Amino acid sequence: MASQEPFSTDSPSMALPGLGRALVAAGKLEQRSAEELYRKAQSGRTSFISELIGSGAVSATDLAHTMSTAFGAPLLDLDAIDIQRLPTNLLDPKICADNRIVVLSKRNNRLIVATADPADHHAAEKIKFATQMGVDWVIAEFDKLSKLVESRSASVNETMESIVGNDIEFDELAAETATTETTDKSPEVDDAPVVKFLHKMLLDAFNMRASDLHFEPYEHNYRVRFRIDGELREIASPPVAIKDKLASRIKVISRMDISEKRVPQDGRMKLKVGPDRVIDFRVSTLPTLFGEKIVIRILDPSSAKLGIDALGYEPEEKERLLNAIGRPYGMVLVTGPTGSGKTVSLYTCLNMLNKPGVNISTAEDPSEINLPGVNQVNVNEKAGLTFAAALKAFLRQDPDVIMVGEIRDLETADISIKAAQTGHLVLSTLHTNDAPTTLTRMMNMGIPTFNIASSVILITAQRLARRLCATCKQPLDVPRKALLEAGYQPEELDGTWTPYRPVGCSACNNGYKGRVGIYQVMPISEEIQRIILRGGSALDIAHQASLEGVRTLRESGLLKVKQGVTSLEEVLSVTND
Question: How far apart are CA 472 and CA 470, in angstroms?
């Protein structure tokens, strides 16, 4: 969109802002009147545009039409749009309120922003700095725009005040820290700007559906990043001076030792995000060259209650899993790399099993999701409470279902298998690439093959792929050769489906919104048991599983592409083992 000023910048008597020069050039205002109104605005510390409209020198409607013509920007009637559908997470509400602007949408790497003053280059620069995106102006009437901005700002402030108080500026943070860091040695870190900033970051992360927050100090800068849909995005760059105060504040509310900065620490904290909703956070600190890096993981208990249908299992995969966890005894293993959603899958199963007549005990390092009705134990290796020790204790507690956070060693594996063989359902995780290699990994750990064959009833391997935004995804023409190389069979390329590509809009994150699971669900059949007993390889097990209709992770991902759930590029990325 055009944003060049179509008039001279000469000012005979004083430097009027671009808005004033445009009105003078269009014959809507005399030069002397414009200068007088500008002086009045400066002396009263109000905006020039407010003074123009308030004095009656020009009407809001006339001003909007003049700006549209002068700057070649489209004119928008705000009464004709559905304000409920406007994006809320593309720009800081404080910038919108301070500059009387409203973000309408996002197109590629540019924001479409409604304003009454397209000559306000300062506002454009603030938006570019905050979002790293370009700005395209759309003109709106000042009175309607102000009313909309104020109503949205009021709702945001009401939410923030109920939880964290008013918003703050980074300059205030720097000033507060500079004046107090040499004199305030109290262990209770309560300086308001740091407290408000931390709470705002936590709330923003929750609202943006982030899984982790990273607070990272460097020599000359400090940055905050959120992991959203598996990707890290830089959100804020507060002053370096606040790093120690912020670290101390996080440690205080996470019940850590604020005087210890030389070794990593772990803790937990909570944030109330509604009248009856509390979110848990797991906190980890790490000493680095320039201060302590802090990573906060959001542990949303509601994720365990989404239900199995929300996780992305295909109907036959869901049926296999439900059959396995419905058995009275045996071992069910969930495998995959860190961050592949294993914990959510396990807790979804536990939530289905969690009934008044069932005794469930879990041992984790640490417990990530609080599930009422389940007896959860955090292992503590220093105190001697290992996975193996917890498991031994569980077996004396009359359990029905046992969940072990991770099988790391032979002792834990041995006790888990004995529990599965003696009338208990055991759920656990392993870090392996797929289901067949899980069995050979257990053999390599030293577990006898007959114990594996007689105890393991199902293995599910999984990955998380970003889900395409349903609003903006578009069909993609992929060459037949590329589809065949990706793993599709010739008979699947029958023209009845088409891959989709990410585009990007105001409702998503670069074309993706949320994530979906890709699964390989492998029941241990009698034939696979025979392969295990004779010491067969992972290739032998994989071949037999394929004959029994078990999809590989790649095949499951390709099915999600056919369904239009995710992109081919994303599947190739997460299943490139």
Answer: 6
What is the CA 165 to chain-centroid distance, rounded? 24
Cα–Cα distance measured from residue 286 to residue 291, given in angstroms and rounded to the nearest whole number? 8
Tokens of 157: 């402030």
Neighbours of 572 (CB within 10 A): 17
Residue bearing tokens 């919104």: 513
Tell me the whole-structure pTM to 2 decimals.
Answer: 0.64
The two three-digit tokens of residue 309, written as one number: 């249908």
300 CB-side CA count, 13 A: 15
Contact 258, 250 (CB under 8 A): no
DSSP tag of 311: G
Helix and strand numbers, DSSP H then E, in the chain = 21, 18
The tens digit of pLDDT for each residue in 194-214 reads 888 888 888 888 888 888 999
User: Rounded CA gap, 552 and 540, in Å?
Assistant: 14
The neighbouring-strand residues paired with 394 are: none
pLDDT digits (tens, 9 = 90+) for 56-89: 888 888 888 888 888 888 888 887 777 777 887 7
Interhelix angle 526-533/435-444, rounded to 10 degrees, is 30
Report the distance separating Cα 352 and Cα 304, nearest Å.
10
